[in-house]
Amino acid sequence: MGGRTRRVMGVAVVVAALGVSPHIGRAAGGPAMVELGSLSTLFGAVPFDHAKHAGLAGDCAECHHHTLGGAPVKENCARCHKANQPAKSAACRECHPAERFEAGYMATVAGNPQLYHTGKPGLKGAYHQKCLGCHQAMGGPTGCEDCHSMTEKGEAFYRTGKYAPAAAPKKGGH
Amino acid sequence: MKKIDRRNFLKGGLAGSAAIAVTGTAATAKGAGTFGGYPNSMGVLVDLTKCVGCRTCEAACNKEQGLPEPEKPFNDTSVFDEIKHGQKRRTSEKAYTVVNRYEVEGREGGPVFRKIQCNHCQEPACLTSCFVNAYTKTPEGAVVYNPKVCVGCRTCMVACPFYIPAYSYSSAINPVVKKCIMCYDTRLKFGRPPACVEACPQEVMVFGKRTDLIKLGHQRIKENPGKYVDHLYGENEVGGTSWMYLSDVPFDKVGFDTHLGNEPIISYVKEFLTVVPMVLTIWPALFTGFHLLSNRKEALTKEEETKG
């Protein structure tokens, strides 16, 4: 039981930790390509075409909120973050924790009465909400495997591919 | 003056014990009040606007709880078209959580997906209804049960306002009730979130202290004017639940029962249940007494007759 649990947790933790590892040079205003893979277990890394998306988004703040120094896109955020200085790093993982519900992190959040952003999504949530949210709105691809291919571990987890249920569903019977 | 005969005496006795029962009950009910939940219990805030229907939570639940192989792979979305007995999918002995799809007319951005599982009530009706006390509401917030004492009567299935407890109909020898326990044994007990919460790619669910989640829920409603329905489902329903929901469409459009009221289910039966032990203990003694009293005279007469 313990081993299984630890494995499941491991899966979730790793899935929750995609980091940004810039490579293949830098285009103006950021890396051309970014491999998002620090959380990958059930799915492989996402080869993210940063340059392409930067062009599509128009405004860097669309994804990087206020961390590049510009004004945020959302009015509600601008109330506080209008005149922000550029952050040390603009990587998602700098602000969004890989282990969103880890006891230590949750205690830090709960123990800070000054903190406004108590519901800040973890890294996995931030990626998916941002990417998928925009893809839905702009008509981009929205299938899981459109962005990252499923690993063998993923196939076992989702009981698909070679781990798919063998028997045809039974009819009737209570 | 009214003659005191046996009939009148009995009537008086009945009225008296009824009066005691009623006043006693009223005092007890008031004294017990509503429980309102453990102060530091954990909960989950579910934001329906974020769910994309990927069913990862179902897969995570299956793995964590060691449930049987599903009929279809967990990435198969054809399950959303399944209708059984005129209903969308429900929780079962094989699946403690299921996601359903709701087409809501006039909603921009397509259908709404809603995950169902045990809501872990503050004052659970299943617990109240169970006569073998199989259920426990833990201080961490989970409603767990002991399958070893479950006799399989299924009263909790009738009592649950959310139709969640399922039954292991597949077991011929020892069928018991099966439901989500918020991963109590393997995670919650150790301060970790349920498997479904951690696995969700969209962070549809936020795990935290229930009191914090209520604040967070209302903060989200306020921060996004016009986005959400101004209601946190589960904050007050049936006395409050550990799992609470935010939605951008009216809750009754996506399968929520909006007529449950805010009274815990136990409130409807508390007064009656208080009388039960009284009836079971006082009445037998009282009426045996009456019986002996009334027969004593006859026995004495008979004795005298035999003497005479």
In short:
The complex is a heterodimer of chains A (174) and B (308). Chain A has 174 residues and is α+β, with helices and mostly antiparallel strands.
Task: Provide tags for this entry.
heterodimer, A: 174 residues, alpha+beta, three-stranded antiparallel sheet, globular, B: 308 residues, two-stranded antiparallel sheet, 7 helices
For the secondary structure, the number of strands of chain A is: 3
The proportion of residues in beta strands of chain A is 5-15%
Please give the count of helices of chain B: 7
Q: Which strand order does the major sheet of chain B show?
A: 8-1-9
Taking Cα atoms only, what radius of gyration of chain B do you get, to the nearest Å?
A: 26 Å
**What distance lies between the first and last C-alpha atoms of chain A, to the nearest angstrom?**
30 Å
Number of DSSP E strands of chain B:
9
Instruction: Please give the count of helices of chain A.
Output: 8
Largest interface: A-B, 41 and 45 residues
Structural class of chain A: alpha+beta
Molecular structure report:
The complex is a heterodimer of chains A (174) and B (308). With 174 residues, chain A is α+β, with helices and mostly antiparallel strands. Chain A is built from 8 helices and 3 strands; from the N terminus they run αβββααααααα. Chain A has helices at residues 2-15, 50-57, 61-64, 75-81, 103-110, 123-138, 144-147, 152-158, and strands at 20-27, 30-36, 46-49. Chain B has 308 residues and is an alpha+beta fold. In chain B, 35% of the residues lie in helices and 11% in strands. In chain B, a hairpin with a 5-residue loop joins β4 (135-137) and β5 (143-145). Chains A and B meet through α1, α5 and α6 of A and α2, α5, β8 and α6 of B.
Provide the fold topology:
The complex is a heterodimer of chains A (174) and B (308).
Chain A: H1 2-15, E1 20-27, E2 30-36, E3 46-49, H2 50-57, H3 61-64, H4 75-81, H5 103-110, H6 123-138, H7 144-147, H8 152-158
Antiparallel strand pairs in A: 1-2, 2-3
Chain B: H1 6-32, E1 42-47, H2 56-64, E2 98-102, E3 112-116, H3 125-129, E4 135-137, E5 143-145, H4 155-159, E6 166-167, E7 177-178, H5 195-199, E8 205-209, H6 210-223, E9 243-246, H7 265-307
Parallel strand pairs in B: 1-9
Antiparallel strand pairs in B: 1-8, 2-3, 4-5, 6-7
